[in-house]
Amino acid sequence: MYALKLDEAKQRSKRQARTTRPMRRRISLAAWIALLPMAVTVVFAYLGTMLWTARVSMSYSRSLPTNTFAGATQYVRLFNTERWIVSLENLAIYGICFIVACLVIGLLLAIFIDQRVGAEGALRTIFLYPYAMSFVATGLVWQWILNPELGVQAVLRHLGFEHARFDWIVSQRFAIYTLVIATVWQAGGLVMALLLAGLRGIDEEIWKAARLDGIPRWRVYVSIVVPMLKTSISTAFVLLFVMVVKLYDAVVAMTQGGPGTASEVPGKFIMDYLFNRANIGLASAASIVLLATVLAILAPVLYARSRMASKGERA
């Protein structure tokens, strides 16, 4: 009797397997068909344009692409161009200041809102709202605010501080920092939202244990909470780094790369040589160098994140 029932169960499982296998195939086929447009976009629109840009960067192309092979000539010419070196130095200064300021301000805002303050929803909206603006709008707003004749300096002098001076936007030395101020104002809310989501995922038992042990609240944040936010912080870092590399709109709206080349960045250098100076080869070489820099910095970060995620799954 038992053997008969076992045989019936096996037959039933075989029938179910025969019916579910075609269904799985159909679902798998539908999933691949749904992914096909994105796969085509990635292959042709992204990888294709990267390869085409790399090919043009090794040619003598000027106004139009040509097939004349130039090897590394454009790259040698690029790194012998002082304006390109200055743009890289400016991007390094801007990137360090921007990322550090955004992470610090975003973390402080997230900790502040995590205290269950009143009107929390309104505060989140206020802090996050600037991120909804375009970089062009942000640049224009801050250009007016920092304009020595119309903005902060003019207001201070109107209030009686006749010797007040805040003319960074027209200063060779400080122009790049005005871009930091404007873009941190815009992106700080995004970091706040990411880190606040991480803070809300912290187990309440940690806070209860800390209160029982009499550990100061700031010490809990420094020693326990912030290390637990490493995934959120790394996500914010990746997003901020991409914003650094893409920096162009705010520069054009605020300073046009000036005064002189004080706020020149690679994005503006590439666009100028691509459209204004009709040197596609040099602009393509600059694009490939920028792409290689991004991959060299982001690849270890993403690899470390994947390793941490796999370790967490094993644990």
From TrEMBL:
It is found in: Cell membrane. Residues 1-11 have a biased composition (Basic and acidic residues). Keywords: Cell membrane, Membrane, Transmembrane, Transmembrane helix, Transport. The keyword Transit peptide does not apply. Residues 1-21 are annotated as: Disordered. It holds the Pfam family BPD_transp_1. This is Glucose/mannose transport system permease protein.
